Amino acid sequence: MTDPVQEITLDPAERVLAIREIENVFAARLRIMDTKQWDRYGSVHTEDVVSETFGAAVTDESARRPAVVGRDALRRAIEGVLDGPVPVTSVHHGHTPEITLTSDTTATGVWAMEDKLWWSNGSTEEHLHGYGHYHETYRRVDGVWLIAYRTLTRLRVDTTPGFFDYRSRSPQE
Amino acid sequence: MTDPVQEITLDPAERVLAIREIENVFAARLRIMDTKQWDRYGSVHTEDVVSETFGAAVTDESARRPAVVGRDALRRAIEGVLDGPVPVTSVHHGHTPEITLTSDTTATGVWAMEDKLWWSNGSTEEHLHGYGHYHETYRRVDGVWLIAYRTLTRLRVDTTPGFFDYRSRSPQE
Amino acid sequence: MTDPVQEITLDPAERVLAIREIENVFAARLRIMDTKQWDRYGSVHTEDVVSETFGAAVTDESARRPAVVGRDALRRAIEGVLDGPVPVTSVHHGHTPEITLTSDTTATGVWAMEDKLWWSNGSTEEHLHGYGHYHETYRRVDGVWLIAYRTLTRLRVDTTPGFFDYRSRSPQE
User: Fold this and answer.
1) What is the CATH number of the domain that holds A44?
2) Residues of C in contact with B93 (CB under 8 A)
3) What is the number of structural domains in chain C?
4) Residue of B11, B98, B133 lying closest to A24 (CB–CB)
């Protein structure tokens, strides 16, 4: 937000088309994640992507985990959480994007979001239901817009008491 | 998806405007359905529309019903489900469209979706809450984009035990 | 809707860009409200904005309150509801906009919406969960699209029995 804005040479049609392509890559990520197409998950991100969303469900700051860096590490991290030893059904929805081009090949985006997760803890169904905003940056690489950075701020998160027990069952975690 | 892609002659502005018009017809369908304006429901679809969404709430494949074909049949089918002998309050939301023009007059679209249905079963309120993706195709007819095909894949559906009892009360069903 | 439509001189790219800017101001309002940035709330509306959404949660028409008129009055009203003596956590989501330009500097918009509110009533957590459609108009003032009018129609509202008790605790209400 405080970076100097580069000159944008795109005409109005090109600008709107760029915003559409950014919205498409955001949409594809959520769909790929919720339908567990892990082979495609990395490819919507830049090679050097940084994600700070892990642990954003916990309100205890000291329990938050460090950023995940790199396309392959990110794919392994999310696959470990959602599709490791404990399978988790997930629904992630994104709303009302505010996309700002910061140059012809870079942009920022803020999206309202809601996520739901479910897993079977023996005979108990565990559930998380969260609300917040994704804050992302995008970069155009070889003509394709990709996600370069993501963090998540929360308005509220509700969970069943045993929801985070899945971590103790998951070697990746 | 495997069809050969026709040449697209639209310029960038026309392409983005086409995508907007497609998003508008999708939005109008959900609003018309949830506000029960049945006289307008057919008109957002092509005459030969095919819908395979009926029965998408049930996980038993053998219980799925065949496609509904044609604008008038589709309107009667959905009105029968939502506004027949048993009135059903419905909320359908669509998110993060991925629209792809396949020619100047045809397109495909995938939308994340969430639906909620409620009806009164005597003193019990029955409820369905589902999540998934709409997969649609669109066709431009006489200058207007219309929905030509729709199916629905599900991530999860929760219902109260008696939710589907309304079918036994509805002659249309 | 029945006003005579002014001539639109914007070209296709400018029209789509205008629609994007309108969507951005809608998105910003919800984000500013849910993150309680009251100093910024007025600025996304015209000076003479009219809001008829207050009391839209109640089904008893006689209990509905009059329109709030003006940027500053609107900000005080919403701050009083959500961030007065009784703090309320809120999540407002808007979906599938249908934006129509009615001139180069005016537009209408309909959005599907869902809202959730929570507050602590002693040891009870009170909750409202609603669904409906925002109906807005927009006006371009000094080159910036702003919200000029808003009302809300409801499909359904669920609340805990004591939800509206916060009003008796709030001098602003």
Assistant:
1) 3.10.450.50
2) 95-96, 112, 114
3) 1
4) B98
> How far is A164 from chain B, CA to nearest CA, in Å?
21
The DSSP code for A5 is P
| b/e B144-157 (16+ beta carbons within 10 angstroms → b) | ebbbbbbbbeebeb
Given a contact cutoff of 8 angstroms between Cβ atoms, the answer to whether A145 and A25 are in contact is yes
Q: Over 90: is that where the pLDDT of B169 sits?
A: no
Question: Sign of torsion, CA B149 B153 B158 B160?
Answer: positive
Q: Do β-strands C45-51 and B106-121 pair in parallel, antiparallel, or remain unpaired?
A: unpaired
* Binary contact (B16, C16; C-beta < 8 A): yes
Closest to B12 (Cβ–Cβ): which among A14, A91, A94? A14
Q: What is the mean pLDDT of residues C151-162?
A: 96
pLDDT in tens, B101-130: 999 999 999 999 999 999 999 999 999 999
Is there a contact between B112 and A31 if contact means CB atoms under 8 Å apart? yes
Q: Which residues of B touch A93 (CB under 8 A)?
A: 95-96, 112, 114
Q: What angle do CA C152, C157, C161 make, to 5 degrees?
A: 135
* pLDDT (tens digit per residue) in C46-66: 999 999 988 665 555 555 678
In the predicted structure, residue B171 carries a pLDDT above the cut 60: no
Residue A7: both structure tokens together: 């000159």
Chain B residues touching residue A35 (CB < 8 angstroms): 133, 155
How far from chain centre, in Å, is Cα C61? Answer: 19
Min Cα separation C23/chain A (Å): 7
Considering chain C, what is the average pLDDT of its residues? 91
Please give the DSSP secondary-structure letter assigned to residue A123.
Answer: T
Nearest CA in chain B to C16: B17
> What is the residue range of B156's domain?
12-168
Q: Which chain A residue has its CA at the smallest distance from B111's CA? A: A27
> Which residue does chain C place closest to A133, by CA atoms?
C31
- Quote the radius of gyration of chain C (alpha carbons, Å): 17
ipTM of model: 0.91
Instruction: Give pTM, 2 decimals.
Output: 0.92
In a domain, C5, yes or no: no
Which sign does the torsion angle of CA C153, C158, C159, C161 carry? positive
Answer yes or no: is A5 within a domain: no
C87 lies in some domain: yes
How far does B162 lie from chain C, in Å, by closest CA? Answer: 20
Give C8-48 pLDDT, tens digit per residue: 999 999 999 999 999 999 999 999 999 999 999 999 999 99
Find all residues with CB under 8 Å of B173, minimum gap 6, and list them. Answer: B80, B81, B84, B166, B167
How many inter-chain contacts (A to B, CB under 8 Å) are there? 51
- What is the structure's pLDDT at A52? 93
> Is B173 within the bounds of a domain?
no
State which residue of chain B sits closest to C109, comparing Cα positions. B24
By the 8 A CB rule, do A38 and A127 touch? no
